[in-house]
Protein 1
Amino acid sequence: MGECPAELVRDFIAGDQRFFEPAVEPGKEAAGDDGYNYNDNQLLTRAIQNGARGAYWDILRRLRTA
């Protein structure tokens, strides 16, 4: 897949909201707090504190379509 597989997948997805973009490769700048990693994801943490329940990826999906 080359040196930057996540970038290649993001290009294939082309922003289609039906798909989750892969994590940024080490050494690359992250896009912010909208990643799908549940470790130290402040957006996800706040949503759960506010009562969100379910699979972490589904909570994040619902937040991005809200």
Protein 2
Amino acid sequence: MPAPDVLSGESADPPSSRSEPPSRPGEPPDGPPPQPANANADPPVPAPAPFRAAWPWVLCVIGLDYLSTLAYQPSIAFGAAGRLAPLVTVLIALVTLGFALPVYCYIAGRSPHGGGSTALLERVVPGWFGKLLLLVLLAFGAVDLVFTRTFSTATAAEHLTFNPHPQWQQALDDATRWGDGARAGLPDWAKQRSDGLWHRQTVVSLVILVLSTATGLLFFRGYTRNFIRLAALTVLVYLAMTLVVIGSGVAYLVDHPKLIASWWADVWSGNGRPGAEAPSPGGWGALLGACIPLVPALCLGLSGFELTLMAMPLVRGRKDDDPQKPRGVIRNTRLLLTLAAITMSAYLLTSTLVTTVLIPPGAQEVNGQAKYRSLAYLAHGGALSDGQPATEMNPALGLAFGTAYEPPRSRFSRSRG
């Protein structure tokens, strides 16, 4: 072994070999104990708990979607089923309470983390068949999303366009004339391309676009306390004013039983649905057979159940909930589903009966009257089937009440759209 180079000051041994000899067993080591590399780093900040709210407030958020179909469901029911609409709505309520509600309550217990029915099917149906089934369900969901959003926006435009308030109609006319004047200054090629594009419907569409954008900004910020407060205010005002209209109609029918008798005579004699095969008198089977095929066309609000499952992470449970099986969240979500289903069924049954019996069939088919806005037609004091104005049901109804009724109603449709 070569000798170390003493003249150069280098040593063959590593530097650690020239340090002090190690301490004996039982003696403390020399110098301070070694510190970990991240000893001086700040302690990790715990992640903030996700925002949760009591289930009645979450119900108001769900109501923006689920209950918004009240804005046009009675009109769609009459357009599809005619005078049979109340009977078809009874079947829809039975399907909702007897089938959809138990199924979604079960899914809430099996998929409590916001995945909904698709997450459950992904676990229980493996393989390519499960993937194909999920693809089909997602396709149905996409169709429902596109239809309900576009149709809700269209009904909001319908309500705003035909609001009979004189100042509002004058404002629409002024905006239309202003647009025509602005188009007159365009080049000839632009005039030709824009011919027929600027009219009252365009003005209303631009108004809805601005309001929908403002609503969308609230959604992009997530579910905050202010958003839930706004949703609760909108839902409660809308349901309260709708209850005034429906309750007044029900009370009027109780005081005028001949209207119910006349409606039932039309249904039983086969005049309930124009163009349909008339059931023979006493033919309950034929009557039921005429109603059942119409049920799928009117099941527009069932997507609200799936939205409820997606909003489960927003529902507040108990402090001792197991994160994997939050029993408090599951219980409160089932309460939310039950109350939403009962509320929607009650409103649909009564609103469809009131609008079908009290509004003349001709008004249900004319734009600007009751078509797609049957409850608003009654709220504005429109003519009833017995020739009396709707103010006979309740003196509070009329132009002022109807004008106040339109904003929350249109906001409901825009929230869904």
